[in-house]
């Protein structure tokens, strides 16, 4: 093969140019991301049961759905949340590689089987199944520039003109409105209802009957008489469209001709559909929309598409509405890729300088340098072919590959230069002879290096995705390097190099002369060391065994980890007031946090979602999404970690709220923070109270541990509850049914969705609920009235009493078991691996009946930790077998493999001194060391074999001489 290209250099150039062309075309088509899609594909199931308590919601809705999810194909785990707002959300995670569309279809089919068992209100609200991630990609806000629109008006405009457009953008998995659209709100007055002898159920029935669509048909429709000449559609206005029309609904017509209308007992307005969420941008009310990435979406492309769509839509906005995108996670992607690209350029420059320093000839240096961009472009084409993206892992692989790429070309150039200097042959003949000597070595080195990285590509799971991205990059780069070393490099040597006189050596003057003298002295010293070592092999083997034991001990003691936590340019802050807090109380705490963040250096924007947090939803929760200024504008005191520490320290003095700032995890969808994700499960049916007690004990012991810090329950605490004690015998004696009682309670307190009404081209809901003055105190409930079978109003006080209790505001489940979510992190000086081990130790001390599982990033870290030793062992085994086949020997591969622990020893020592962990990057580095160590050993063995062949016979003395000569070469 080399001879073919030596004789046809243009052909070699054409092959290289084709590789460059395909690579150049691939680069703009490659997606760009910080990390590949590592998190397991997930399906979100959400629904609501207005007015239901968390226990009722969990038992009557969540558990039924979880029963059906059990056994779904390729399901990894599922986690549920049932809260006091009547909201249910279940996230089902599937094994990596599962097609999310098929998973979504299976989930929907399983939901169909359970729908008949769910409450009617849940079916009426609908069950939403979406393919979505849990990572917030962007937050879009709408603002009223002149203050003429309130939050409801802005939210209604957003849902009409923005929400649907954003949801259609490729890559968007879910777009959630954190405001509200408009609805017709009918605020009934229970006291007035009693005065007119009416009940809430009478109001519901009247609205249902008088606000209805009428299929009126037409006159003259077939079949018709022979004399009929015309036909026309008959229109009947059944649906009402304004508060005045709804106010005119007749609730009762009296015998004297008077009527009782809806406006007599209720206040009617076009208000908000719900008042659950509020959005604030830098302290000002606004309407907010969160954009979540789909499981297969590309963050950078999707964010750019959203920005372009908002720019397009803004041209049609009224003059008094403007938009902002205050929260966007993609700048870190751009910054990361730019940084790695700069590192790649720096690596190429450094490699060029080092090669020029050793080769001391610009022509000799240019030839290996040309190989680098060609091989990298070929690697980009390979990434495009296999559907990968340009991300931190593939770019990291390219950076590491730069040094490997030039090695084969340097071996060719140096061998050609050596033959020209020693034998005086012209470049073409010298190249031909050089390639005959080293072609086998190049092929062997290539196969060994590829064999080192190939096993990484076959590991399953999310961690396997990480290794696979790196493996494919390295294998492709090495393959192109070998191809070019056998084609383009010899062709360039034969055409670009100039003849040199026999005996020609490197310069002996100037910088090169000084470098050559230092190098010769070092080579001579190294040769003497090798010669001396050959005489003391026994003692050196003892030292080797000691080092090997040190490597094993240091590797085991090295703390585990997954991926390093970096400053991503944004953080989150959770605000949680006491569980009994009202919205006004929570808003007061939010304002205090906003005031502090406004004066904190390094912060660009603060977007607050009130009523929502990663811990749960409720009136006592709020979540801040904080965008930091560009990294160039922030110093060490304004890093993400420093700001998080300052927030947690300075705002801990707020007595009426718990403030918790967190850095995001390095991988989207693997948790909401950089700490661990632990799930304590009630597997022994101990009950909610026992589960809470066990979690409190575990959290207390964890916070007392010297390894852990900031350990807390990731959820909402129990809250005061009003227990309405209904005497069913008394209710039956009054002629009341439990359904009548339930409907009255649901309407007055939980709100009741009746039907829809047309409002400016959009069908919106009609909601009936008691006015705010009639549901502020627990005693107000006893004043509600239910109409019995005889048409009489019976007050709740006649058959019910009130009892204050304390109960859950949120019930979580994990893999069908009631669970408590616990998060935390390691103290400074310890790693996430130490934290995981400590949490497991403490959890094993709990009473029988309580189990635990890991999820998110912690689960992937445990998987990566268990896979890493096997991965390293497999790489070593593959190298051994390949070398055995290459050299037809069992001893030569052992000589090669014995060098590997020395390389690992240096890596372990460096990681220990720097306080680094045994994470994914460290594992990848060790595998690279295995390949490089094997490569260097192969070169030495090849030279030793060549020197031995020159000896008279293969005996101990010639063998030692061969080893000495190979070391010097």
**Strands, total number:** 30
The description of the largest β-sheet is: 9 strands, antiparallel
Given the C-alpha coordinates, what overall shape results? Answer: elongated
Mean pLDDT: 82
Helix content bin = 40-55%
Poorly predicted ranges: 952-959
Strand residues, percent: 15-25%
Structural class category: alpha+beta
User: Radius of gyration over alpha carbons?
Assistant: 36 Å
Number of helices: 31
How many angstroms does the end-to-end distance come to? 26 Å
Short description:
This protein has 969 residues and is an alpha+beta fold. 50% of the residues lie in helices and 20% in strands.
Key phrases:
969 residues, elongated, alpha+beta, 31 helices
Overview of this protein structure:
With 969 residues, the chain is α+β, with helices and mostly antiparallel strands. It is built from 31 helices and 30 strands. The strands form 7 sheets. Strands 1, 2, 3, 4, 20, 21, 28, 29 and 30 form a 9-stranded antiparallel beta sheet that branches. The longest helix is centred in the middle third of the chain and has 32 residues, at 392-423. It is elongated. The two termini are 26 Å apart. Mean pLDDT is 82; it is low at 952-959.
């Amino acid at each position: 093969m080399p001879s073919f290209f030596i004789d046809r250099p243009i052909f070699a150039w054409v092959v290289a140019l084709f590789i460059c062309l395909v690579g150049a075309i691939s680069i703009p088509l490659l997606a760009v991301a910080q990390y590949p899609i590592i998190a397991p594909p997930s399906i979100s199931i959400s629904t609501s049961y207005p007015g239901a308590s968390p226990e009722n919601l969990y038992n009557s809705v969540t558990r039924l759905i979880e029963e059906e999810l059990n056994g779904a194909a390729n399901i990894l785990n599922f986690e549920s949340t049932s809260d006091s707002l009547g909201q249910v959300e279940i996230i089902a995670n599937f094994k990596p590689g599962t097609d999310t569309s098929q998973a979504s279809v299976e989930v929907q089919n399983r939901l169909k089987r359970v729908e008949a068992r769910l409450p009617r209100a849940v079916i009426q609200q609908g069950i939403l199944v979406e393919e979505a991630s849990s990572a917030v990609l962007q937050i879009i806000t709408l603002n009223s520039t002149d203050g003429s629109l309130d939050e409801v008006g802005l939210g209604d405009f957003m849902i009409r003109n923005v929400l649907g457009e954003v949801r259609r953008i490729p890559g968007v998995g879910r777009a959630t409105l954190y405001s509200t659209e408009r609805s017709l709100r009918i605020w009934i007055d229970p006291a007035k209802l009693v005065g007119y002898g009416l009940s809430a159920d009478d109001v519901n029935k009247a609205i249902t009957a008088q606000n209805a669509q009428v299929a009126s048909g037409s006159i003259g429709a077939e079949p018709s008489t022979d004399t009929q000449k015309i036909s026309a559609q008959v229109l009947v206005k059944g649906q009402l469209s304004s508060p005045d029309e709804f106010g005119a609904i007749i609730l009762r017509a009296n015998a004297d001709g008077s009527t009782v209308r809806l406006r007599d007992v209720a206040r009617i307005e076009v208000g908000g559909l719900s008042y659950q969420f509020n959005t604030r941008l830098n302290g000002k009310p606004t309407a907010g929309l969160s954009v979540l990435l789909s499981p297969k979406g590309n963050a950078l492309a999707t964010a750019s598409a959203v920005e372009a769509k908002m720019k397009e839509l803004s041209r049609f906005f009224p003059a008094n509405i403007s938009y902002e995108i205050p929260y966007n996670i993609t700048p870190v992607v751009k910054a990361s890729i730019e940084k790695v690209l700069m590192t790649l350029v720096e690596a190429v420059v450094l490699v060029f300088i080092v090669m020029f320093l050793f080769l001391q000839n610009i022509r000799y240096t240019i030839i290996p340098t040309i190989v680098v961009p060609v091989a990298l472009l070929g690697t980009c084409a390979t990434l495009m072919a296999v559907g990968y993206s340009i991300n931190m892992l593939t770019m990291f692989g390219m950076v590491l590959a730069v040094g490997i790429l030039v090695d084969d070309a340097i071996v060719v150039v140096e061998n050609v230069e050596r033959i020209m200097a020693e034998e005086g042959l012209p470049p073409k003949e010298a190249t031909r002879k050089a390639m005959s000597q080293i072609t086998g070595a190049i092929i062997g080195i290539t196969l060994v290096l590829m064999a080192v990285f190939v096993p990484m590509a076959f590991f399953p799971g999310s961690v396997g995705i990480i290794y696979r991205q790196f493996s494919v990059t390295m294998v492709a780069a090495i393959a192109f390097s070998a191809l070019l070393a056998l084609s383009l490099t010899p062709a360039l040597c034969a055409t670009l190099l100039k003849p040199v006189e026999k005996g020609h050596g490197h310069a002996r003057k100037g910088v090169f002369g000084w470098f050559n003298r230092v190098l010769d002295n070092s080579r001579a010293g190294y040769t003497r060391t090798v010669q001396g070592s050959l005489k003391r092999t026994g003692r050196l083997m003892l030292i080797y065994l000691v080092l090997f034991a040190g490597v094993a001990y240091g590797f085991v003691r090295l703390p585990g980890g997954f991926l390093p936590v970096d400053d991503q340019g944004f953080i989150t802050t959770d605000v949680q007031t006491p569980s009994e807090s009202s919205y006004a109380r929570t808003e007061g705490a939010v304002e205090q946090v906003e005031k502090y963040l406004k004066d904190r250096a390094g912060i660009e924007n603060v977007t607050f979602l009130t009523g929502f947090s990663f811990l749960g939803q409720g009136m006592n929760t709020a979540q801040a999404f904080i965008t930091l200024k560009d990294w160039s504008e922030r110093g060490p005191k304004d890093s993400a970690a420093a700001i998080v520490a300052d927030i947690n320290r300075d705002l801990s003095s707020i007595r009426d709220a718990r403030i918790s700032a967190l850095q995001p995890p390095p991988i989207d969808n693997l948790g909401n923070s950089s700490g661990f994700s632990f799930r304590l499960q009630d597997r022994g049916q101990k009950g909610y109270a026992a589960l809470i007690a066990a979690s409190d004990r575990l959290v207390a012991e964890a916070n007392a541990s010297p390894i852990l810090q900031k350990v807390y329950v990731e959820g909402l605490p129990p809250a005061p509850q009003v227990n309405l004690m209904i005497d069913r015998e008394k209710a039956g004696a009054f002629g009341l049914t439990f359904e009548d009682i339930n409907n009255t309670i649901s309407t007055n307190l939980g709100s009741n969705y009746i039907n829809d009404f047309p409002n400016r081209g959009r069908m919106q809901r009609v909601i009936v609920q008691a006015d705010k003055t009639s549901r502020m105190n627990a005693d107000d409930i006893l004043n509600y009235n239910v109409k019995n079978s005889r048409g009489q109003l019976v007050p709740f006080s006649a058959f019910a009493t009130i009892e204050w209790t304390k109960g859950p505001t949120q019930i979580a489940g994990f893999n069908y078991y009631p669970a408590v979510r616990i998060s935390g992190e390691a103290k400074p000086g310890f790693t996430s691996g130490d934290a995981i081990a400590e949490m497991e130790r403490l959890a094993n001390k709990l009473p029988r009946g309580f189990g635990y599982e890991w999820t998110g990033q912690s689960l992937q870290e445990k998987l990566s930790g268990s896979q890493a030793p096997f991965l390293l062992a497999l790489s070593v085994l593959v190298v051994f077998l390949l070398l055995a086949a290459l050299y037809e020997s069992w001893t030569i591969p052992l000589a090669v493999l014995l060098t590997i622990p020395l390389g690992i020893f240096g890596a372990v020592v460096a990681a220990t001194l720097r306080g680094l962990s045994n994470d994914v990057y460290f594992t990848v580095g060790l595998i690279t060391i295995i390949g490089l160590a094997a490569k260097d050993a192969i070169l030495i063995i090849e030279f030793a074999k060549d020197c031995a062949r020159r000896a008279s016979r293969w005996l101990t003395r010639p063998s030692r001489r061969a080893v000495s000569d190979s070391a010097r070469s």
